[in-house]
Amino acid sequence: MAYRDLREYVDLLDRDGQLLHLHGAHWEEEVGAISYLSPKAVLIDNIPGYPTGHRILANILGRDLRQFFLATNWSTESRGIALTREWKEHLRSFSPTPSIEVNEGPILENVLTGEDVDLLKFPVPKWHEEDGGRYIGTMDMVITQDPETGRLNCGSYRMQVHDRATLGIHISEGKDGYLIREKYLAQEKPCPIVAVFAVDPAQLLASGGHITHVDIASELSFSGWLKGVPEEVVRGPVTGLPIPARAEIAVEGEIVPGDEMMEGPFGEASGYSEPRMLPVVRVKAVYHRDNPMLTGRMPIYHPPGKTASGQDVNSAATVWDQLERAGVREIKGVACYFDVHIIVIAIRNSYAGHSRQAGIIASQCHRGAYLGNWVIVVDEDIDPSNLTEVMWRVSTATDGSRAIQILDYCWASHLSLLDPTRAFTRAEYPVHPHKATYRSAVVVDACRPVELDRRWHRMVKPSDSLIRRVNEKYGQAMFPEGEKPGPYVTTALFVPGEGDTAV
Hints:
Elements: H1 6-15, E1 19-23, H2 30-37, E2 41-45, E3 55-58, H3 65-72, H4 80-92, E4 100-101, E5 110-113, E6 134-137, E7 141-145, E8 152-155, E9 158-163, E10 166-170, H5 176-186, E11 191-196, H6 201-208, H7 219-227, E12 232-235, E13 242-244, E14 249-263, E15 266-268, E16 271-273, E17 276-288, E18 293-296, H8 310-325, E19 331-337, E20 342-347, H9 354-364, H10 366-369, E21 374-379, H11 387-396, H12 400-403, E22 404-411, H13 420-425, E23 438-445, H14 464-478
């Protein structure tokens, strides 16, 4: 069902039973713990120290695939690799939905400029107990414009509140927002910026989805396509950049060359990032709706339970699409775990070097290169969405000296570095050591070599036809209501529920 903005999406969640209403949780740490524990989206009101109606909305893309379907205005009965394949094909049907510029919008219900600018009028959470401050940008949309090409870019970058009118901003090296900022700074010019702090899930997917597989003038045309409704934007009077007219909270400001403050630490999925001197945004204007919602989440290494999320599906489909566009053949499935820290690809290994080609390209395609620390390639008889099967193949049928390849000097984020000092010492000419951010990527080729007799080197299990026959005759006795088939029953015989393997 189409929706125009976050409020209409919240109504969809509520009607579908995917929204939890809580009252009185404190912005300092309690909100973060709630985000960690809740499998649903959570709308928190009556936050101590803030007026009723100044709310926090956490987990707008949670662990239930129904949220993903609501967010993308799309659905399917398929699960597992079939779901990922269908989503990949749906992405390929993309047709730009240009945004519409309007003169008015709910975002202009409240306008704060000059001395009235106050970022702390919103209940910005301290998400983790050891964070170095309050983070307003954990699910945001940051809009910049390339000074050379004029192209608008929407990205999702970490932002910390330093004071009433100053934001710290962490943009990983290599991201579009980073490259645009560097162009301005190289010209010794301030970089204009719009930051939206209450985004709907389509805007979030567009901003953080690495959607290089579509030719678009702006990610806003992609989010409008996902929602089924064009984005309405107002022209920012300070920066001239577009501001989503139906957003909850937005700011205009600029990044000035040489203007930095200490940012962090902050608890990311890979652990606490160390404090660093990073550029800041000097906020010139704040806009918000009446009774605004602030979106966010607690980044964690793994939520309680073993559930798949729509973001896993989107990441896997994007890697799959980029592999095929790079010319890799016979891909049978892709799955992502822990965001994209582990990528698993199943192929029909058809020629010498095929599996290694798939693994290396997956580790270096745009979606896989950022945070894709481990890439595992398996044969088509292994279900990449079943991590138990994948690790069984890796542990029992690979020779480490042949199967493992380490790629050095790969694109990295400081978020993915186990040893941050290593990134600096490896630069040959460290004139700008802060730019020397590298990592190593690991490719595990767990496919059977093509020169082996495939009749004898394959997974040992009953055929699907035999399993179906036995399941029809004895399934009710073996699997009473409430129980699930054992590990030797293929996923084709049942639909994995919450707690089963990743998508």
